[in-house]
Design brief:
Blueprint (H helix, E strand, L loop, with lengths): L1 H4 L2 E3 L15 E8 L6 H21 L7 E8 L5 H13 L4 E4 L3 H15 L3 E3 L16 E3 L4 H14 L4 E7 L2 H16 L3 E8 L7 H10 L3 E5 L5 H12 L5 E3 L7 H6 L7 E5 L4 H13 L8 H18 L4 H4 L3 H5 L4 E3 L4 H9 L4 E3 L7 E2 L3 E2 L3 E7 L2 E7 L1
Parallel strand pairs: 2-3, 2-4, 4-5, 5-6, 7-8, 7-9, 9-10, 10-11, 12-13
Antiparallel strand pairs: 1-3, 11-16, 14-15, 16-17
Helix pairs in contact: 2-11, 3-4, 5-6, 7-8, 11-14
Length: 397
């Protein structure tokens, strides 16, 4: 883990024999994810996705007449606001030109308010999904490539209805992400005629969740929906519920989706289901193949969105002719949306050439990027079921 935390990845050192000004320009992108904490099993592939886009652009030699792109990693802890803010401040001191992250919603809001806004730094998060981020006064500095949990609540309610679930018990991790997602699920499920028997918070990092499971079991419900994190509290709740014989099938929102959960729980998790941001089609198929060739899992949650976050930064810089956040920030929505020639993973060099020639691009990327409202992703969802200890995609919404 120390090795991962201290990694500073230079995507490439030299790509072209000469640059227009005689000196190599360096674009520095901070990558602030929870390399420790309740989603640490997801952050390796997420980082690899973002850094693959950086390498693709550096290797092209076409960004700002030959700029290289360097990744500087920092730990958000996912749920540690103090750590996230101090590490974001360090990234600012190291001269980053943009910040990919943070990952979890609470630390993302803390970094945005305490570091990004005061320093005029643009942030693009691939995984911060709290609806509260939609209404934050971000000064035009915050974007995300994953959709809001307000949308996920609607999707989950639809899935539960389709499976004939009439009542649920609902537990959530006690932070901005968990509360916002739980509210969205409850509101949408009740609007569809469902019954929510209990809504109860849980803390991450506890050794014993028997008290929380006891309260949930007393309330009952056809299904226990766990709006938590797969590497800590969420997994603990599921283990406790299985041990108590309270439920044998669970509803799994995005923070619970990842191969580490079935690996941790074992075969008793088979049959549980849920959803996570994800798309189908040319973009994701190409990205998964590229990731496999590069040695990481492109299907891992929020990994396509991480590639897209990095790509949007670099295409916007090309459109602005600048690595200054004040100049390229307004270009992010422009390169992400129509009109323009559609751009998919592996086509970043083509996009840079088109932009330099004055041609509009519509970045589709790996996750079918479309930005709506104040930097929001419209987003689609991949429906998941655990089968034979593996995550299996069973459809899209």
């Amino acid at each position: 883990m120390k090795k991962l935390l201290m990694a500073t990845t230079a995507a490439a050192l030299m790509t072209t024999p000469a640059f227009a000004d005689g000196h190599a320009k360096e674009v520095k992108l901070g990558v602030e994810f929870g390399y420790t904490g309740p989603i640490e099993s997801l952050t390796g592939p997420m980082s690899a996705g973002a850094e693959m886009a950086m390498k693709e652009v550096t290797d092209s030699g076409l960004l700002l007449d030959g700029a290289t792109v360097t990744s500087i990693r920092a730990d958000s802890g996912c749920i540690d606001n103090g750590l996230a803010v101090s590490n974001a401040e360090r990234l600012i001191a190291e001269g980053i030109n943009g910040l990919i992250g943070a990952d979890c919603s609470g630390v993302t809001g803390a970094v945005l308010q305490n570091v990004a806004i005061p320093n005029g730094m643009v942030m693009i998060s691939p995984s911060a999904t709290s609806p509260g981020l939609s209404t934050m006064d971000d000064k035009g500095l915050f974007f995300r490539t994953s959709p809001s949990d307000a949308r996920e609540g609607q999707v989950m309610a639809e899935i539960l209805q389709e499976r004939g679930v009439k009542s649920i018990a609902l537990t959530y991790t006690n932070n901005d992400y968990g509360k916002g997602l739980a509210d969205a699920i409850q509101t949408s499920f009740e609007a569809a005629g469902g019954v929510v028997t209990i809504v109860a918070a849980h803390e991450d990092g506890k050794a014993d969740y028997s008290a929380e499971v006891g309260a949930l079991a007393s309330a009952g419900g056809d299904l226990l929906v766990v709006a938590g994190y797969l590497d800590q509290g969420g997994a603990g709740i599921i283990k406790g519920a299985l041990d108590a014989g309270a439920w044998d099938v669970f509803g799994l929102p995005g923070g619970m989706i990842g191969e580490n959960l079935p690996a941790t729980i074992g075969p008793d998790l088979n049959g549980s289901y849920g959803q996570i941001a994800g798309s189908e089609g040319t973009g994701i198929d190409t990205f998964i193949a590229m990731a496999e060739a590069a040695g990481f899992d492109g299907t891992s949650p929020f990994t396509p969105e991480s590639y897209d976050a990095a790509a949007l930064f670099l295409l916007a810089m090309q459109a602005a002719g600048s690595m200054d956040p004040a100049e390229y920030g307004p270009k992010i929505t422009e390169v992400a949306n129509a009109p323009g020639e559609k751009i998919y993973p592996g086509e970043l060099a083509k996009a840079l050439e088109l932009i330099k020639a004055g041609t509009d691009v519509d970045y589709v990327g790996a996750s079918a990027v479309e930005l709506i409202g104040p930097g929001e992703s419209a987003g689609t969802y991949r429906m998941i079921e655990i089968k034979d200890g593996k995550l299996e995609t069973i459809g899209f919404k």
